[in-house]
Every structure is written in C-alpha cells, then in structure tokens.
Amino acid sequence: MKYRILIEQDEDNMFVAEVPSLPGCVSQGETRAEAIENAKDAIKGYIESLEKHNEPIPRTI
C-alpha cells in the first residue's frame, strides 16, 4: 500500500513526516530521507494495530 507522506522542517531543523490518511501517524528524522524511512515504519505499525483490533484500514492514495 502507498500512503502520501507530507514533510515539513520544524524550527529545530528536524524533518517532520505526517501521513494525512492515518490520523495521528507522525514521525520525524534529522534528514528528509530519515523522516521518510521512520514514517514507513510508523505506517507499518499503524496498519498492524488496525488489523489487530479489526479496524478498517484507510484507503491509499
């Protein structure tokens, strides 16, 4: 599955990655690439939690 990841740099120069389709799924990294990789891990964990609790999985992009 593919989800859109929005990246913004914060005031501390950290890159914040947010997944709009998955409310509360946010990660960060010192680089844009690290933030994306961390977001992919967060997405995986988010989906696993939904499956564990028999919750619907939001559609991908």
Span of the ends, CA to CA = 8 Å
Trace the largest sheet across and list its strands: 1-2-3
Total beta strands: 3
* Assembly level: single chain
Q: What is the CATH topology classification name?
A: Double Stranded RNA Binding Domain
Helix content: 25-40%
- Would you identify the regions where 5 or more consecutive residues have pLDDT less than 50? none
Number of helices: 1
Overall pLDDT: 95
Cα gyration radius (Å): 12 Å
Structural class: alpha+beta
CATH architecture: 2-Layer Sandwich
Q: What is the number of domains?
A: 1
The proportion of residues in beta strands is 15-25%
Secondary-structure element string: EEEH
Q: Largest sheet, described in full?
A: 3 strands, antiparallel
Outline type: elongated
* CATH hierarchy class name: Alpha Beta
